[in-house]
Amino acid sequence: MWSATALLFAAACAPDEHLLVVELRSDLVPGVEIDRVRVLVDGAARAELALGRDDALASGVRVAETTLPAGAHDVLAVLERNGSAVLERAVRVEVVRATSVTVLATRDCRGVRCPADDATASACLGGACVRPECTPETPEACPAPACRADADCAPAGACAVGRCAGGACLAVGEDVCGPALYCDPDRGCAALPDECAQWGPWQDAAPIAEVNDPSGDDWGPWMSPDGLRLYFSSERGGGLGGQDLYVAARASAAAPFGAPARIEALSTALEDSDPSLSADELEIFWYGGAVPYTLFTARRADLRAPFGAAAPLAIDDPRQNDITPAVRADGLELFFSRDGNDSGFDLFRATRATRADAFGDVQHLAALASGATDCCPGASSDGSTLYFEETDGSRYEIRVASRPSADAPFGAPVPVPELSAGRAAGDPQPSADGRTIVFAGRLDGGSWDIWRASRACVR
Fold first, then answer.
1. Is the pLDDT of residue 365 over 60?
2. Strand segments (E) across 2-110
3. I want to staple 439 with a disulfide (CB 3.0 to 4.6 A). Which of 36, 60, 331, 428 is the partner?
């Protein structure tokens, strides 16, 4: 906390110098996309401040105060995540008396190299190169403003609003996404990243008794990021044409689930199975229809609204069975199974640039192929870890593979014995925070039920 006493003390102790207060404004998400800012003045470190989710960075956060002799000074704000620079913004300020300067760092400057055509335009604002003298306090040093009011700025994501700051548009996330989620202005509601460096083993695997039906198979579980809704498919009641899609809700993560309700808007006279949703639960994917099975999707405006009409995915191959879709939390990567080999199903992935686009660029995940049936994937919220099922028809085991980033290939899969010990296990889906996993389990040749296990972070 910066206090008035500290400001007076700084000014009084250096009568031949003047106070400079540095404020940072940015539409990068504090505590998620950036967690620290370092402030350098004339190349020397002057301040360092941790940034958390409660910091109102889009409105402005005071990040440094220092005393300087009169004259021009170069201020550099380095915005970091886990010790690595995400974005730097340089400003030049003329100190003639007690002075305040705003460092405006916009998310669209990530990856922009300045200067470009003009050697004097060595800073970035609004995705373009500008002179470092360009600040909200000195608009005369800036190019023509991109906005003059908030209404001039279009939001970049469904949960974000546009704000005009110093002639540049900010895309600012609103607090509308719910627990365990945050608003990514570029992608919409997304799961909060988990910070665990090493997990312990999965423990306490047990059926979720209140949702399971003894008369038939329950399959394909997916749990909402806040843990309050469990989506799955079930044969209960004979179904309309095999399995149908269901959802069960509860009041808190510690409470039991209530009675499952069929998702009537998506129920057909054919198979409807294995749901997977985006983190905001506004987009759902599943497979169904007649053999060969098809991948479907549907959308809704909010959690209280019914899903709209089902639409087949453009990536679906009508000659083959495409089943068990699993979408990454941000909705930009889809994993699924396709029976494209002699032994059974293999795993595939498809991507898209935004959630308004169709999926394309289908890739076979050959590194995960075992020669048996590999299917039923479930991705971690950031897509770095993929759980899936391997089976030869009598043995059902869960395996896991990891990759360092969404652009990198997966490494060799390894078994997860604690989930498969003493039971057939498949169709796994880890929770958004990585602490819980839901999967389909079967004991002694009985029906498939929905199971749950948990784990703890060990470091």
1. yes
2. 18-26, 36-41, 44-50, 61-68, 71-81, 84-95, 99-105
3. 428
**Euclidean distance between CA atoms 107 and 160, whole angstroms:** 13
Contact status, residue 248 vs residue 261, Cβ threshold 8 Å: yes
CATH of domain 4-141: 2.60.40
Which of 273, 277, 314 shows the shortest CA–CA distance to 293? 273
Of 352, 422, 430, whose CA–CA distance to 388 is shortest? 430
Task: Determine contact, residues 230/248, Cβ cutoff 8 Å.
Answer: yes
The rounded radius of gyration (Å) of the Cα atoms in the chain is: 26
Q: Report the residue count for the chain.
A: 459
Strand order in the sheet with 44-50: 44-50, 36-41, 71-81, 84-95
- How many Å apart are CA 393 and CA 396, to the nearest integer? 7
What pLDDT, in 10s, does the model give residues 95-137?
Answer: 999 999 999 999 999 988 898 778 899 999 999 999 999 999 9
- Cβ atoms of residues 139 and 160 within 8 Å: no
**What is the domain partition of the chain in residue ranges?**
4-141, 203-454
CATH class label, 203-454: mainly beta
Task: Note the pLDDT tens digit of each residue in 130-170.
Answer: 999 999 999 999 999 999 999 999 876 678 999 999 999 99
